[in-house]
């Protein structure tokens, strides 16, 4: 019974490790996507301010 229990626990530990690694990868992917989205938003805002001539984000600058 002890060997069976050890195998069961080892299996559960491996499963949790896989989930943690998967979660870390998902978080990393989300952070990368967030950075890309923020960059696109910033470039879009600059272009929109330049074309409209208005300070849309209230930072005191146009573009």
Write the layout of secondary structure elements.
Blueprint: H1 2-52
Which features does this protein show?
single chain, 63 residues, mainly alpha
Question: Can you walk through the features of this model?
Answer:
With 63 residues, the protein is an all-alpha fold. Helix content is 81%, strand content 0%. It contains 1 helix and no strands. The longest helix is centred in the middle third of the chain and has 51 residues, at 2-52. The chain is rod-shaped, with a radius of gyration of 24 Å.
Silhouette: rod-shaped
Major sheet characteristics? none
Structural class: mainly alpha
Strand content: under 5%
H/E series, N to C? H
Tally of DSSP β-strands: 0
Radius of gyration: 24 Å
Helix run count: 1
End-to-end distance:
71 Å
Quote the average pLDDT.
88
Low-pLDDT segments, ≥5 res: none
- Residues in helices, as a percent range: over 70%
Task: Offer a concise description of the structure.
Helix content is about 80%, strand content about 0%. It contains 1 helix and no strands.
């Amino acid at each position: 019974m002890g060997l069976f229990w050890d195998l069961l626990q080892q299996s559960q530990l491996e499963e949790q490790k896989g989930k943690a690694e998967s979660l870390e990868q998902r978080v990393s992917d989300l952070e990368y996507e967030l950075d890309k989205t923020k960059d696109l938003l910033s470039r879009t805002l600059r272009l929109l301010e330049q074309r409209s001539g208005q300070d849309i984000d209230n930072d005191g600058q146009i573009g």
